[in-house]
Amino acid sequence: MRKLVATALCLAATVTATGCGATVEKPANAKSSAVTLTNCGREVTFDKVPERVVTNDVGITELMFALGLEDRMAGFAMPDDKGDLNGVPWKDGYDKVKWLSKEQLTKENVLDARADLVFAGWNYGFREDSGFTPDALKKLGIPSYVLTESCHNGRTESSRGIMPPLDALYADLTNLGKLFGVEQRAATLIAGFKKQVARVRAQAPAAADRPKVFLYDSGQDQPFTSGRYAAPEQIISEAGGVNVMHDVEDSWTTVGWESVVRRDPDVIVICDYGDVSAEQKKKFLLSYAPLRNVSAVKHKRIFVLDYVDLVESPRNPSAVARLGTYLRTVAEER
């Protein structure tokens, strides 16, 4: 994966709480009074400020780091295929907090870490089929916080997403700020992110000129992609494009290649992670016969973003800016 430059990302994020020299408020004392938050449409009360948080996956972990909360963490679980972590603004967090597992979280990880909060999401650690759920943890006396991007929406048994993706990011930052007593830090981050996104939006092509974009995560028989409620939806739209899968009322899901061909995207964005490299994914897309007449393939308009850019994370606004620059070029060429 492409190595990220810490200085550039610090400037892009405007106000990362650690790693960029920002002055930050001191987190609340763990003996503070109970805090009630709205998470996935439900009110959840936490009796005290967590001191041993365990997180699952890179985007969720970096939400904690961006708020300067690594001292409140007991560890994180994350596969080692999510990019170079040495150049990120939160490298100090990764150096300081224990890497518990290179697989998804388990009850054993959580118990061994003596966790007093698990911050994960549906399909970002929480899974019904594995028995690792908020309800199962509650029976062990361990509270949970669910990533808002991943909230089940009730449209189908597994569909996820209850609000626009960037709103989900801001909701989680706001909630975490309240829970840990760093509300001003969260508000400053959110204001910086909104300002950055607004700058990109102001430069976006006119509605009639906006390129159609397909997000390609993985899969050859059927592509795994992003519907209306995953981060790419708003990353694409704020960058000046149109997500061709906007009508899919889910976050991350599988579709058919025929639907991609029918919608004829002008650009394909590759999600870079895993055992199959971005270059291998690009080679497949350019050589896959059913796609040969798709505009993005004919003109080789393929753009790569890292996994953490495309899941809910503090890197989303930077991804909007980078994709925006590319889409403006495409719009000018067409």
TrEMBL record:
This is Iron transporter. The keyword Signal applies. PANTHER family: IRON(III) DICITRATE-BINDING PROTEIN (PTHR30535:SF7), VITAMIN B12-BINDING PROTEIN (PTHR30535). InterPro entries: ABC_Transporter_SBP (IPR050902), ABC_transptr_periplasmic_BD (IPR002491). The keyword Acyltransferase does not apply. Residues 1-22 form the signal peptide. It comes from Streptomyces caeruleatus. SUPFAM superfamilies: Helical backbone' metal receptor (SSF53807). Keywords: Signal.
